[in-house]
Every structure is written in structure tokens, then in C-alpha cells.
Design a protein that fits this description.
By secondary structure, the protein is α/β, with parallel strands linked by helices. It folds into 2 domains: 2-54 and 373-424, Urease, subunit C, domain 1 (Roll); 57-363, Alpha-Beta Barrel (TIM Barrel), CATH 3.20.20. Helices cover 28% and strands 23% of the residues. It is built from 12 helices and 18 strands. The protein has helices spanning 76-85, 104-113, 139-144, 160-170, 196-201, 208-224, 238-249, 261-264, 286-298, 313-316, 333-344, 349-363; strands at 2-12, 17-26, 29-34, 45-48, 53-56, 58-63, 88-93, 120-125, 149-150, 177-179, 192-193, 205-206, 230-232, 254-258, 303-304, 379-389, 408-418, 421-424. The strands form 4 sheets. Strands 1, 2, 3, 4, 5, 16, 17 and 18 form an 8-stranded mixed beta sheet that branches. The chain has a 4-stranded parallel beta sheet with strand order 6-7-8-9. The two termini are 22 Å apart. The model has no long low-confidence stretch (mean pLDDT 97).
Length: 427
């Protein structure tokens, strides 16, 4: 690897760098960063990069790789290929696999399969054994094996007593617990958001309060057990944003993520019965989107995560009510975020990079990527103003269940450099 990016805009919010520079990558390391011209050699790949931005490698902290157990939907290899295609250098895989990620052998299995890939795979393990919500998983030993946080994602830890025990168990190592916030007694057999749309379509609705009840309960439990670290996955309602804002103002150690689809679409999309818009939590209403965007701007919402949830086509060839929830997102997250937040909402690129690279690592207490000479290169390079149309034929994921197919975006991933590998996006 011997690559020179000429006149690239380098943005690193941690080091407070935002400058047009020349960037030389050699053998997987940052060899030279300079305002002056860098000497060229015959074996050097030269990229004129005045239209590009280089940033610390983006990390998606909420990805379903489906392995072990559901490799017809996705594998570690195809999920990593999708992540690289979408501009991510690292991801965290979710534990709702079969068997669930609740033991050391499963952690070792994933680590082995993820060796020598261009995208670094981190692991989230379960809070409870088999995600059944009853008995705690061996979180301390899983953390020692490298697990970065704990969640029963796909299911809520419904019992307040079990969640209280989990917070107490997490205390010695200050582990991060994350919650899929859904009061299941209010959402059983839901298809869409509970609203005028659900009434019009005659479909079972998922009320906003089902998300907010669990958030409010867990915030109380977190505070009661000593202000424990708590992360809310795929936040989707105005009331939820208000709860988090109030909790942060009280000094609680709460963080949260939002998906691109929850800032982009309302539940009106469901009126066409398009199964690519069926997800959990469901698409909400415009007032919820407005509150989420306000929460991004004021720092209430910490980061963007795709909640990449691939499903096989045969699973989806059923009645709308029986279609499995979830959409893919690794390859469309950056385009959606740049289009919606940067170009439409005028949020600066520094803030976008914080949402996709800096804040997720802060939440998980991971070391920040350092862009400096002699450091290992972990970079996402994107074109913030390039227009493109999402085509499912260009996905590297095994799945095509995306709500963004044929959507026009402004802002496109171009390259990643990580683990001494250089990958060009083919979107």
C-alpha cells in the first residue's frame, strides 16, 4: 500500500483538525501529513482528493451479522463487505444469534471468523442467558474476553428486578448496558406505529409510550444502583428524547443512538404496504423526527447507528403482518446522514464525524483513532457533495431489505483504510 491523497480535507474533531492537506499512506500507516507537496514515486497511487474528506474511521455500534445461526441472511464476511462498502472501518455485532452470544466459545468463534478482514469486528453480548430475560449472562468474563457492551437486543429485558440485578452486576467493571426499549405487553403482534395511519390501514400499532415506559424505568434503575452506564438503542420518539435530555441534565450517564431511517421517513410510507419500511421500532411521525433532529443538534442524541438487520427474501414473501421487522443500513447510513443532516439540516461535517466516529467510541470507552504520522491508518474517506442513487444491485450485503432503494443521496463513501487494507466503495 502506497497511496497519496493530494489536497484532501482532513477533519479530526478530537485533535481539532480541519484543514486541506496532503496525506501519504504507506504499508497501512500514516507516513506523512503535510501542507507542502509530498515527493512522488513510481510505485505510488496518486488520488486527486480536493473533493474528498478524510476522517477517523467510522464505527457502527449496532449491526446484526446473523452469524452464528442465520447465515442465509448474512455472514460475518458479507456483513464486513457491506460495512466497508458503506464507509465503516469498525462495527459491533449484536448477540441475537443462534446460539446467542452469551458464552466465551461464541465470542472466540466470531473473533476467529473476523480475523484479517478490512473491517474490525467488535462484539456485544447478551445481558441474560439466551436473551430470555431471566438469568444474567457471565458479563464479567465476557468483558475480559473483549466484549464491548451488553444488550438483549431484539428483546427488552422486561423484568425490572432482572435489570436491577444487571446494573448491580455491571458495577465492579463499570460495564455498559444497552436496552432495546419496548414494553412488549403493549406491542404484541404490532405491524406499524400506533397513529392515524395504523387505524386507517387496520393494522396493530406500537404506541410511543411502549418505548418511553422502559426508558423511564431503566433511567430510574440506573440512578438507583449508583448512576450506572446506560445506552438506549434506536431511539424513535419525541417523548424518549425528552426523557434522555432531562436525564443528562440531572447528570445521569445515559447515551443513545438513532438510525438513519428514523430521521428520514415517517409512518406514512407504510400506506403503500412496502415491506422495506417495516421495522422495530416502527417509523414514527414528523413531530418525532423533528424532536430527534433537535436532540442531535443539542447533543441529547450521541450517535448514529444503522441497526443493520438483514433478512432473506423468502422470509419476506408473506402477508405484511408476518414480515420480519428490520432493514439493512450499513451501505446507506453515510449517504442518508449526509443528505438529511448535513445538506438539509445544515449540520457541520465536524458534528457528523462526531456522530459516526468519535461519540460511539466514547460511549464504549474505546480508544479514539489518532490521525498522525507513524500511526496506523484507520480512515474513512468520503465525498460530501457527490450525488448518487441507491441501487440494490451494488449492495455487498446478502440482503436487499432497504427503505432507501432508489433514493437520491448527496454525499457518498469512497474508500476505507484499515488493518493494512485499502477498500474502494462500489456503490
Amino acid at each position: 500500500m502506497n497511496i497519496l491523497f493530494e489536497n484532501i480535507r482532513l477533519i479530526d474533531p478530537v485533535q481539532k483538525i480541519d484543514k486541506v492537506l496532503n496525506l501519504h499512506i504507506l504499508d497501512g500507516k500514516i507516513h506523512k501529513i503535510s501542507e507542502e507537496a509530498i515527493k512522488k514515486t513510481d510505485d505510488m497511487q496518486i488520488i486527486e482528493a480536493s473533493h474528498l474528506v478524510a476522517a477517523p474511521g467510522f464505527i457502527d455500534m449496532h449491526v446484526h451479522l446473523r452469524d452464528p445461526g442465520f447465515s442465509a441472511k448474512e455472514t460475518i464476511a458479507t456483513g464486513v463487505a457491506a460495512a466497508a462498502n458503506g464507509g465503516f472501518t469498525e462495527l459491533v455485532c449484536m448477540p441475537n444469534t443462534s446460539p446467542a452470544i452469551d458464552s466465551l466459545p461464541i465470542v472466540y468463534y466470531i473473533n476467529k471468523k473476523a480475523e484479517n478482514l478490512p473491517v474490525t469486528v467488535k462484539i456485544a453480548a447478551t445481558i441474560t442467558k439466551d436473551r430470555e430475560g431471566l438469568n444474567l449472562s457471565p458479563m464479567l468474563e465476557l468483558n475480559e474476553a473483549g466484549v464491548v457492551y451488553f444488550t438483549d437486543d431484539g428483546s427488552c429485558v422486561c423484568s425490572a428486578e432482572v435489570m436491577k440485578r444487571a446494573f448491580n452486576f455491571a458495577t465492579p467493571n463499570d460495564l455498559l448496558l444497552a436496552q432495546h426499549c419496548e414494553e412488549h405487553s403493549l406491542t404484541k403482534n404490532f405491524s406499524v406505529n400506533e397513529s392515524e395511519t395504523s387505524i386507517k390501514l387496520g393494522l396493530k400499532g406500537y404506541p410511543n409510550i411502549a418505548e418511553e415506559i422502559i426508558i423511564q424505568r431503566d433511567l430510574k434503575l440506573s440512578e438507583y444502583t449508583g448512576n450506572r452506564r446506560y445506552h438506549i438503542q434506536h431511539i424513535s420518539t419525541r417523548g424518549a428524547v425528552d426523557l434522555v435530555r432531562d436525564a443528562k441534565n440531572k447528570g445521569l450517564r445515559v447515551s443513545t443512538e438513532v438510525t438513519p431511517h428514523h430521521i428520514y421517513f415517517t409512518d406514512e410510507k407504510i400506506q403503500s404496504y412496502d415491506i422495506n419500511f417495516k421495522m422495530n421500532p416502527p417509523l414514527r411521525q414528523q413531530e418525532d423526527i423533528d424532536a430527534i433532529i433537535a436532540g442531535i443538534k443539542d447533543g441529547t442524541i450521541d450517535c448514529i447507528a444503522s441497526d443493520h438487520a438483514p433478512h432473506s427474501q423468502y422470509e419476506r414473501d408473506v402477508e405484511f403482518e408476518n414480515v420480519p421487522n428490520g432493514v439493512i443500513g450499513l451501505e446507506t447510513t453515510l449517504g442518508a446522514v449526509l443528505t438529511k443532516l448535513h445538506h438539509q439540516e445544515k449540520i457541520e461535517l465536524n458534528k457528523i464525524i462526531e456522530l459516526l466516529a468519535i461519540n460511539p467510541r466514547k460511549i464504549m470507552k474505546m480508544e479514539q483513532v489518532k490521525i498522525a504520522e507513524n500511526e496506523t491508518a484507520n480512515l474513512t474517506i468520503f465525498a460530501p457533495n457527490e450525488e448518487w442513487i441507491v441501487k440494490k444491485e451494488k449492495f455487498k450485503s446478502k440482503a436487499i431489505n432497504s427503505p432507501f432503494i432508489d433514493e437520491k443521496f448527496i454525499g457518498k463513501p469512497k474508500f476505507i483504510i484499515n488493518n493494512n487494507k485499502f477498500i474502494t466503495s462500489e456503490l
